[in-house]
Write a structure and sequence with these properties.
Blueprint: E1 2-5, E2 8-15, E3 19-24, H1 35-40, E4 44-49, H2 66-81, E5 84-89, H3 91-102, E6 107-113, H4 121-136, H5 138-152, H6 160-171, H7 175-189, H8 193-196, E7 203-208, H9 216-225, E8 229-234, H10 241-244, H11 246-265
Parallel strand pairs: 3-4, 3-5, 5-6, 6-7, 7-8
Antiparallel strand pairs: 1-2, 2-4
Helix pairs in contact: 2-3, 4-5, 4-7, 5-6
């Protein structure tokens, strides 16, 4: 399905029935990364969309900021779903937190996986290097992206080839990757921490115990800064939890969504 939002045309996949839940993927991913979650979780009408410049969503007049990506999510909620639970992975998690801080009337519950509220110097340098590689030699970027993917998988190494190929397809000509990488690097100078005090809805945080890209310390900072946060850890999983532990990842998301919904209804 497609919908015009702000200055872009957004492609999304809808599945299931029940309360609305929007799924926001990470850097170098697209809506297909949520396919197993959409199949597995019950009682929810899920909407997985391609973020600006990824998958089949157009790049538009991109400005390389988290705020713009957050406004895209807000526009999706306003136009397609109405108030909803939002689940974000990595970059998608920062988008969810930004939207939750600015429009608590639209984000009823946040689930963030592999997500950090601040980017260190090493991570910012990494994003800058990848942006430079895309501009100089896209074939070199394809090799780098495969290497990055390998480092984000802790156990399920047999999945590397198809996952790396899917991720390369998701970034297309690289414009969306550059835009999102700039947004992530920008969190170094403008971290999310000042916004976290404004988030009062429940937030569930999911992390892989072998995630070197977003280690446990990042989740601890979120838990300490948010008024209503719970942490869930996925064993034997790197940053790509959906690849290392696809069933447990999906069931943890479902549990977090269902538990919070039950508390709210109670």
């Amino acid at each position: 399905m497609k919908v015009a939002l702000n200055d872009i045309e957004v492609t999304y996949t809808e599945a299931g029935v029940g309360m609305p839940c929007v799924l926001i993927h990470g850097l170098a991913e697209d809506r297909r990364s949520w396919a197993n979650v959409q199949r597995k979780i019950g009682g929810w009408r899920t909407f997985a969309y391609d973020i600006r410049g990824h998958g089949e969503t157009t790049l538009g007049d991109s400005d390389g900021t988290l705020a713009q990506l957050g406004r895209d999510l807000i526009a999706f909620l306003e136009t397609v779903t109405g108030p909803a639970s939002c689940v974000g992975y990595s970059l998608g998690g920062t988008v969810v937190l930004w939207a939750a801080a600015h429009r608590p009337d639209l984000v009823s519950h946040a689930v963030v996986a592999g997500t950090s509220s601040i980017v260190g110097r090493a991570a910012a340098d990494f994003f800058a290097q990848r942006i430079e590689v895309i501009g100089n030699d896209f074939s070199e970027f394809a090799t780098a992206l495969k290497s990055d993917t390998a480092l984000q998988i802790a156990c399920n190494h047999d999945a590397l080839e198809p996952v790396a190929a899917r991720r390369l397809e998701a970034v297309g000509d690289g414009g969306g990757y550059v835009n999102a990488a700039r947004a992530m690097a920008g969190i170094r100078e403008t971290p999310l921490m000042p916004l976290l005090d404004r988030i009062t809805m429940p937030v569930d945080i999911i992390g892989g115990d072998k995630d070197t890209f977003c280690p446990r310390k990042a989740a601890d900072i979120l838990c300490e800064s948010l008024s209503d946060a719970v942490y869930h850890e996925i064993p034997d999983a790197g940053h790509l939890m959906s690849i290392d532990q696809p069933e447990l990842y999906a069931s943890t998301i479902e549990m977090a969504l269902s538990r919070r919904r039950g508390a709210n209804n109670g």
